[in-house]
Amino acid sequence: MRNTLRERFPGALTASASLDLTSTDALELLVKAPTPGQAAKLTKPQIIAGLARHRRHHRDQKAGAIQAALREPQLGVAIPVATAYGAAATAHARLLLERSARRILKRSVR
């Protein structure tokens, strides 16, 4: 996933630098806005809400940095190509979220 993002949506890597690309909040953001066009439209309150669900500290500052990174000019690609890469990133992020949920469930059952 990192390579896909580096090639087609480097702003997502920059935005998730303060989190962790495979953290549930970063993955949730990627599922919500998998293309540069969608990500640029995310509002600060939307980003803060995601950070709050995952109990992140300093949400306002992190949300501002994330929003700025997502609004930076990205690599110009045709909309169908961006959509296809967005679909691939979404699928990968959902797979990682599902694995994370299974690990949490296993821990709570023990």
Describe the structure.
With 110 residues, the protein is mainly alpha-helical. It has 7 helices and no strands. The protein has helices at residues 2-8, 10-15, 24-32, 36-40, 44-53, 59-71, 79-109. It is globular, with a radius of gyration of 14 Å. The model has no long low-confidence stretch (mean pLDDT 84).
Question: What's the layout of helices and strands?
Answer:
Layout (H helix, E strand, L loop, with lengths): L1 H7 L1 H6 L8 H9 L3 H5 L3 H10 L5 H13 L7 H31 L1
Helix pairs in contact: 3-7, 5-6
Short description:
The chain is an all-alpha fold and 110 residues long. Helix content is 74%, strand content 0%. It is built from 7 helices and no strands.
Into which percentage range does the β-strand content fall?
Answer: under 5%
* Low-confidence residue ranges: none
Mean pLDDT score, rounded? 84
Fraction of residues in H or I helices: over 70%
Shape: globular
Count of individual helical segments: 7
Helix- and strand-based class?
mainly alpha
CA radius of gyration is: 14 Å
Summarize the biggest pleated sheet.
none
Strands, count: 0
Please report the distance between the alpha carbons of the first and last residues.
31 Å
Helix and strand succession? HHHHHHH
Q: How would you describe this structure in keywords?
A:
74% helix, 110 residues, mainly alpha, single chain, 0% strand, globular
